[in-house]
Design a protein that fits this description.
The protein contains three helices and no strands. The protein has 107 residues and is mainly alpha-helical. Helix 1 packs antiparallel against helix 3 and helix 2 crosses helix 3.
Length: 107
């Protein structure tokens, strides 16, 4: 009279859970890939803008900071290019390389 629902076998339950987790992992990787892509785009844009500003107004920046902090212009120049290089390296190692890795794993 009543249809009794037979529970899934343990193998089917494990298989369904595995497929659900695999689907969730793929969705999480896609989200992470998008986040890293936008971080990369924003950081590269900031780097490009900083490079253009430094190239365009180099003498003004050096004079202003050397007077402001009472240090020689050569030190300001060295510090400026060191900080630009450090920003580039950090962006590369913490955004670009992880984005490439996630892109390779998710495909």
């Amino acid at each position: 009279m009543f249809n009794r629902v037979v529970p899934n076998s343990p193998a089917e339950v494990i298989n369904n859970n595995f497929n659900n987790k695999k689907c969730m992992l793929h969705a999480n990787l896609a989200t992470l890939e998008n986040i890293l892509f936008w971080c990369m785009l924003i950081n590269v844009s900031i780097m490009t803008l900083m490079f253009i500003v430094v190239i365009s107004f180099r003498s003004l920046i050096l004079k202003m900071h050397s007077k402001l902090f009472n240090v020689p212009e050569s030190f300001v120049s060295q510090l400026l290019y060191t900080s630009l290089g450090l920003y580039k390296l950090l962006t590369f190692f913490f955004v670009v390389i992880p984005w490439i890795a996630v892109k390779l794993v998710s495909s």
